[in-house]
Design a protein that fits this description.
Mycobacterial_A85_antigen; about 240 residues; globular; single chain; alpha/beta; 8-stranded mixed beta sheet
């Protein structure tokens, strides 16, 4: 399995970011780390190894970027408005820098996005905001309500980066063309968030699969079972 390391200066964030890329061809999958995880976390915890066959067969090319959790939602040292504003710039980085990079390298117009735990939030938020850029969304133990990080503050950056707020009112036709899988488990602390998100999608008649696995917790073993299964749905 080929592995490439990239470091670049993001003009949107005015920060240096790092990323690992696995594979040399195939459908582009943007895979986010969990809370405050770095670009190498999904490799370190075995999530990349569990889909090695897909990478080696040239079916997928996986991009594992950094996030800025410590400078956005998890930075308790700044005002919630600044947390939300910083995250809005991260979303712009994805839109203007990372997605075009993956599209150019693979020749694919609409990418896949995925993530476990808080990585599932990153994936879902981007997919639901920009469905014209995303054909497949795979979340594993994700949570989708960001208000727990905003201390009661509300503004447009909070609203438009909080899927449970903005998805009900969205009429972007591409939402109905997306392959959406919300993966959770019976003992997952984020199970309720997944049921809520599923109900929002049901109310809009958006096709999706709420995958609740039995006898499993919010942890890597079940996510490593889910991820290969979900990648197999990419057509």
């Amino acid at each position: 399995m080929t592995e490439q390391y990239h470091r670049w200066h993001s003009p949107n964030l005015n920060l240096d970011l790092e990323m690992l890329v696995f594979g040399d061809r195939g459908y582009p999958v943007i895979l986010f780390p969990t809370t405050k995880g770095r670009f190498h976390q999904n490799k370190d915890f075995g999530l990349i190894d569990c889909v090695k066959w897909f990478v080696d067969e040239g079916l997928v090319k996986i991009y594992c970027p950094d996030t800025i959790d410590g400078r956005s939602w998890y930075d308790k040292g700044i005002h919630p408005a600044d947390r939300a504003r910083n995250y809005a710039w991260y979303d712009k980085m994805l839109t203007d820098e990372l997605i075009p990079w993956a599209q150019h390298e693979t020749g694919v117009g609409r990418v896949a996005v995925a993530g476990c735990s808080f990585g599932g939030y990153h994936a879902a938020n981007f997919a639901f905001k920009h469905p014209e850029k995303v054909a497949h969304l795979f979340t594993m133990g994700g949570a989708f309500d960001i208000k727990m990080f905003t201390d009661g503050h509300h503004d447009d950056n909070v609203y438009y980066n909080n899927p449970v707020d903005f998805v009900p009112g969205s009429n972007n036709e591409w939402l109905w063309r997306m392959n959406i899988i919300l993966g959770t488990s019976e003992h997952d602390m984020c199970k309720g968030y997944n049921i809520t998100m599923s109900n929002i999608l049901k109310a809009k008649n958006i096709n999706h699969w709420l995958d609740i696995r039995p006898d499993a917790n919010h942890d890597w073993p079940i996510w490593k079972e889910m991820f290969p299964h979900y990648l197999s749905t990419i057509k």
